[in-house]
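Example record

The entry below shows one chain as it appears in the dataset: sequence first, then structure tokens.
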Amino acid sequence: MGHLTTRDAYKSLEERINWFTQGAPPSDTLYKILQVLYTEKEAKWVALLPVRPFTLKKAAKIWGTTEAKAEKLLDHLCEKALLVDSEYHGERQFVMPPPMAGFIEFALMRTRGDIDQKYLSELYWQYMNVEEDFVKDLFFATETRLGRVYVQEPVLVNDKTNHILDYERASHIVEEAQYIGLGTCYCRHKAYHAGHPCEIDAPWDVCLTFDNVARSLAEHGEYARLISREEAKEVLQLSYESNLVQIGENVREHPAFICNCCGCCCEALQAARRFSPMQPVATTNYIPKISLETCIGCGKCAKVCPILAIAIEEAKESPNGARTKKHAVVNTEICLGCGVCARNCPVKAIELERRPVQVITPVNSTHRFVLQAIEKGTLQNLIFDNQAFASHRAMAAVFGVILKLPPMKQALASRQFKSVYLDRLLSMQKKYDRK
């Protein structure tokens, strides 16, 4: 792999991480984080790997070693949750997870003695809560968000329940998953070690992962334990009762995770508070409506709102002499539509209504990757990662997503990609649409 100094090894790793659509802005703190998570040799190995799924054979070729030695290295990296593995058409594949939800979180999803978790948590806190560049890039660099909020199903009245779509239900995601993993909440674990314990004393064992991610984390290093659908639904119920917000991957089909988040520890909800009115995650398709006749102005909804989107307006007299009573007011510009407020209203003065404009959710992870790459101007990185997109199958998947995009984003993709092949595909698509 050639001669690299220690600093060069981690710099190469940082550059490889930032080749992907979701990156990690370089800083001295990031360098220290990578030193905790990766040895110098591991940094050299991973820096050479594709950012998209690859096979054992591909890794051996890249590293210039035998498949037996490569598999041993890959297994070792999976055991540290720096890679996750899966099976595709009977062949084992590996992928480097993004920083978040990925290797940053995985490191604190269980108690472990091979790293200093307090020191790592303090570095995380500095990188995300003080320096902020990573959080701003993660949540606001693209129009298409990384995560989306799930509505709390129990608070929907019958007529609203009939209109909720399957992919809007956390319970449906649980039902559809082949594997379900349960791990420690990275956010509360980090905050505890960094000296900022959870203000509401929320439960820790509520982090849900699904399918290949869940299986890999459970099989390698016990970063999660596999649980049944019934157990997963119990986790959701416990989270509802603890006033936690469900935030999952922003896709309709087979999301990789659902976090159960508190406003004091979760980076996404903290970002919603700090950078209001910008929203770091996609909202639900619901918005709370408060009945002024019923509301008693007790303030419980404002107290439990995770992003401080509810205020209590004091009683006042209008110019015409009419007097209003004390009541709750929702800032609909920043409200996530989670439903925590409705659950806590003692007089049932809050109901959730469908938003007037439907929130659009990407179909799957590939769809989300391509949209974010176009919006961030990094589509060429996604396409021309030589190791990752060496096959026609992978290229076809990306092109297939692009062809289904609105014309404006197709034009953006074409300019970024600068590909005669893509231009011809788009031209053919337009001719077909006119027929």
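Notes for this example: Confidence is low (pLDDT under 50) at residues 386-390. The longest helix spans residues 117-131.
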